[in-house]
DNA sequence: TTGTACGCGTTATCAA
DNA sequence: TTGATAACGCGTACAA
């Protein structure tokens, strides 16, 4: 409405700065993007004009003109799941160090929502994408392929990655847990899983296959629910499994530490002795797991490193440095603690 | 290098779609943004062309031309601190429902880094900003003011908000905790704090002032460190405080649940009885706190709601609906559990 | 080292 | 209802 007044009316542009500094717009652009190519005197003058006007570059215009957005798109299935915090931190640390912005979306574990979110991300013209897992819709895969940008799929190892891949074998982890629990004297092993996304299913498959191989599989000891994990749910599922097995189960692999902690706390309330009457193993190795009493066995995953590696792969590709391997197995480690029998193996 | 081939070469544009559908570019734009203003036949034809080409709008061009980016900038001090997860979830839920994208940055609890990050955010031409707390640099405040967009400061109640504000009084929370702990029979209260950002300092100030008012303040029972919080650190600080007070302390307020859980686990290992020999109270009310044995007293904060409200305020302002109050006190609740004496008040 | 001309892909404005 | 034209703010290519 009213007349234009002072500076606060509209955002300053390159042209405004140029006018004040009495140079051309492109020179201002250079001062910002290639300071070495401008003479010190001019650079100084321009910088003063920039400060005076409080000039902030318009990234939309820059992206449009240069086809470089400086954005990395990241898609994760859940903002509440703490597991992704560490991964994100790794991504942000590396991306930020190279002046890349991160655009983050949450798919709520839904491939359809992921497809929509990926479309949203692509409309921002990111230079690369980091997405979770391999459960994309066909349409989503097509979009990604068409976009022709570096893509890293994280969290799990995939048979056929779209492009690059950083993760570990959830199947193998589940398998190893079963063997370790058997080795520590468990005889009637059960499984408790929630949400049951692709990775949890892999963990379960590995666990089940190992038990089957050892002739220790009892399907009634496998309890799952599509509900999201929580400590409260862990307690409930623990009770379910106990009653389903008439108390025969002497060891439980919980698909994550939330459930496992819930089971542990519930067992304490039920006066079930850990680990003598019941062994427990979780997944993800939260800090709590190492400090709770009794401490909780779990599968440690280098999440921060996973984020770092994924981002580094991308930065390298964007800088034309290429990557040694398109797929990186970041590994895992089964850590036995007091919730397992014989947590210290004999010498 | 090689010849252009097929579709995968370059991203389709509005003009490409227009050509295929045999209409003008602006018509395609309308099909996308104002479907009602285009005849059904044309709309159909255009939609087919869009699908055939896999057209995805270029948001940079759209932002530039329309001065609407559809982006909300969000700045938080830490990606690893679980506290912000719930807030973010609230923000993302509301923003997503209104088709806004969220650009998230992490300031690592540094006002200087925040200033840099806010500049980055502003360069993306967001339509509004959500930032944490009130510790901005002068330069940061100036940028924000100049940008002239809705800004919500979250997490704490501020004396002089830049614009809008959603939070609660950390000072009052600390004060209330002290009174409640005294009321449950604690006589020698201590405080354990880490990181010591503005909000933690407020909690401490409230706690200390309450003790002083009751003539119960002993400065030697106040233990702080700039280190980031962790469960491990909670155990260490617990021991520090015990030795600093020669074991006299009979109740501790930890500035967050990480520290409090660490203290609780450590006390178990030291065979100190909770709550008879030692009362414990944390802050933030993690799910773990309600289920650990003994359950941990804490201060519950409606974090998700805080994110929701902040985002709603912004959406309302952007839609010219205005907001009733620029400042919203979201409140808190001190929850006494088994780690406090007399956790159930007498009838 | 500095500047000119043009185009990036979209939308606002106005006209048909 | 549809379209032509001119911005939006910046960087590339080229020229001086």
TrEMBL record, chains A, B:
Pfam families in the cross-refs: LacI, Peripla_BP_3
SUPFAM superfamilies: lambda repressor-like DNA-binding domains (SSF47413), Periplasmic binding protein-like I (SSF53822)
Residues covered by the HTH lacI-type domain: 12-66
InterPro entries in the record: HTH_LacI (IPR000843), LacI/GalR-like_sensor (IPR046335), Lambda_DNA-bd_dom_sf (IPR010982), Peripla_BP_I (IPR028082)
Keyword entries, A-Z: DNA-binding, Transcription, Transcription regulation
A single GO molecular function term of this UniProt record: DNA binding
Gene3D superfamilies tied to this protein: 3.40.50.2300, lambda repressor-like DNA-binding domains
Protein name listed in UniProt: LacI family DNA-binding transcriptional regulator
